[in-house]
Amino acid sequence: MSAVILLGLVAVAAYKTKPDTPSFRKFITEESKTQSASPAKGWLNKITNAVTGVINLPDFKVTGWVKTDGTLSSSSSASSSSAHTAAQESRAEQEKEKAVRLKRDGKYAVAATTFLAAGRKYEQFGPYDAALCCEEAYKCFKQANDKSSAIDALHRSAILFNKDSRSTTRAARAYETLAENVRSTGDLTRSLEYYNTARDAFETAGDGRAKTILTNIADITLSLHNYTAARTHYETLAAESIDNSTLRFSVPKYLVNGVLCTVAEGDWVKAGKVLEGYGARYVAFGGSGEFGALKDLISAHDRFDADGFQKAYNDLNQSTLLPEQWKQVLLKVSDKLQNADVSFR
Ligand SMILES: *[C@@H]1O[C@H](CO)[C@@H](O)[C@H](O)[C@H]1NC(C)=O
Ligand SMILES: *[C@@H]1O[C@H](CO)[C@@H](O)[C@H](O)[C@H]1NC(C)=O
Ligand SMILES: *[C@@H]1O[C@H](CO)[C@@H](O)[C@H](O)[C@H]1NC(C)=O
To answer: How many angstroms does the Cα of residue 311 sit away from the middle of ligand 3?
Structure first.
């Protein structure tokens, strides 16, 4: 029993001197809500307050917290550690202020690297301020037209925001911007990875943007010729959009893409079944021009009717905005039918 009490006392001493573990931060921020301050500066204030005893840490809470965390580290003298920390944080702040001045003076490239340096200094105090610095570095690199460094800085910022449990939405936004940037460089695989991370984070945060991101995920998956996964995504999008008056108009486009994914895999029998299934489930789609054109397209293919196929293709192209990829896929089929047509005569 006395050992437990001793452990508790040691823990209080140890953690008062080592305030940089995530659970300590959580403890401080959650237990001291009375001390509200700006996110950037509040963290240091809270630590300082805790170390100097302005906020009294109730012993039973600290003991409970030690039990769930389970880690104890070596301790040094509380006052020297606090001075050390304050000096380090002050150096980080000075670096950031320097970066802000450089940015204001339009010296974007050097401002960007200075923000990164400040970010590295902030990292030992937790991810949030470091993430903000990396995000600033991203903006400066963009201004300096250094696209690749901008992407690296934004990636660092996304990782850091993701480490901060209260910044999940911000992490999601950073990953989404990262995905857009990487997509514009043509690296679709990497872009898809970041969109997926963004979607997961938005979902964790209960943010509706998880759904809007899925259109990007579906389109990239299609561009990467991953037709099975793309069709699943388009079906999810259709199901999620049908009851929303703003999104409903996109449903036919998603369903056309779903059917053409099956076509692109070369399975025309399945394409016919998938189409009928969509028509039954989405009644308005079943009576649409897109549905009719797809039905004609499939039956013309099955009859080796090149002219009928071409006509159905033109109808489809008129009733919906076809992605370039589908034009290529369908023109190839059309060519094949033209040639087959000759050999059948
Ligand atoms: C297609 O996408 C799915 C879902 O994202 C993935 O699990 C699968 O590995 C991908 N397939 C290929 C061939 O890339
Ligand atoms: C419909 O979708 C829009 C755009 O995503 C969204 O802002 C809106 O909240 C949705 N409405 C409903 C009723 O879900
Ligand atoms: C598809 O339709 C558009 C007009 O909507 C037209 O400009 C384009 O040439 C058509 N593409 C093909 C390959 O027929």
So the answer is: 12
Q: Identify the nearest ligand to the CA of 243 by its number.
A: 2
- Asked whether residue 334 is domain-assigned, the answer is yes
Which one-letter amino acid corresponds to residue 261?
A: C
- 62-89 mean pLDDT: 52
CATH number at residue 318: 1.25.40.10
Q: What does the pLDDT average to over 144-154?
A: 96
**The amino acid at 322:** L
Q: Is residue 294 part of a domain?
A: yes
- Per the CB < 8 A criterion, the answer to whether 69 and 88 are in contact is no
Ligand 2 site-directed mutation target among 244, 245, 250, most atoms within 8 Å of CB: 244
Domain limits for position 276: 237-345
Cα 324 to middle of ligand 3, angstroms: 10
The DSSP secondary-structure symbol of 145 reads T
d(CA 54, CA 295): 75
Ligand 1, atom 8, residue with closest C-alpha: 229
Percent of the chain at pLDDT above 70?
A: 75
Note whether residue 165 is domain-resident: no
Summarised one tens digit per residue, pLDDT across range 19-29 is 444 443 443 34
- For residue 242 and ligand 2, the question of a CB distance below 6 A is answered with no
Q: How many domains does the chain have?
A: 1
